[in-house]
Amino acid sequence: MDLIGSDLACVRGQREIFAGLGFRVAGGEALLLVGPNGAGKSSLLRLIAGLVRPAAGTLVLDGGDPELSVPEQAHYLGHQDALKPSLTVTENLAFWIDYLGGDRGALEAALDAVALEDIADLPAGYLSAGQRRRLSIARLVAVARPVWLLDEPTSALDVASQARLAGLMQAHLAGGGILLAATHGPLGLDTARELRLGGMA
Ligand SMILES: Nc1ncnc2c1ncn2[C@@H]1O[C@H](COP(=O)(O)OP(=O)(O)OP(=O)(O)O)[C@@H](O)[C@H]1O
């Protein structure tokens, strides 16, 4: 399986963020999007996730499910945690599993994977920033999708949680998954390639 972007261009607010951008990421590979603030790392992830329309270019998941779009085969972890504060940890994850067409039987193991099982009954509104992020990460574990799009996934995570996330990313790659992550620092992946985006500092 290969995620292939060709000649992609992105325009936001009538300003060209990037143009002529190409990349290919194979199953089992990670591509780190690096570059200064405003370079377009988040924009590229949002474009692949189907949240921003490309001004030009094509994006295909070669070897993916031809019945599904690229966004339907991708998990997008953005800056917003997309949780309902009045619902518990378990209820939030159950919502996401249903929404993403997953199996609720995967819920408990996913909470364990992000070490939230002890606060499973707490409303999400009471969670710390790092706990909220871990709950968002749990949906990637609960519902299998071949492409992970992660925007600064370690933000708010403590050292133990960063190591746990690194383990989850490595397992995803070992299973043939594709990973693209925007980051300003190391993510604990030894073999990741980098795509450097330009732009204003
Ligand atoms: N909705 C929007 N409307 C107009 N311009 C936008 C919009 N969203 C982002 N931009 C602009 O697009 C450019 C790229 O932003 P983006 O968030 O993709 O950068 P980034 O590389 O992820 O930056 P950072 O490292 O700060 O997260 C910035 O100049 C930003 O101001």
TrEMBL record:
Record bears the keyword RNA-binding: no
SUPFAM superfamilies assigned: P-loop containing nucleoside triphosphate hydrolases
Pfam family, one: ABC_tran
Biological-process GO terms, alphabetical: cytochrome complex assembly
InterPro entries: AAA+_ATPase (IPR003593), ABC_transporter-like_ATP-bd (IPR003439), ABC_transporter-like_CS (IPR017871), ABC_transptr_haem_export_CcmA (IPR005895), P-loop_NTPase (IPR027417)
Domain ABC transporter: 3-200
Keyword set, alphabetical order: ATP-binding, Cytochrome c-type biogenesis, Membrane, Nucleotide-binding, Translocase, Transport
Statement: the UniProt record of this protein carries the keyword Membrane: yes
GO molecular function (one): ATP binding
Family: Belongs to the ABC transporter superfamily.
Protein name, entry field: Heme ABC exporter ATP-binding protein CcmA
Lineage per the UniProt record: Bacteria, Pseudomonadati, Pseudomonadota, Alphaproteobacteria, Hyphomicrobiales
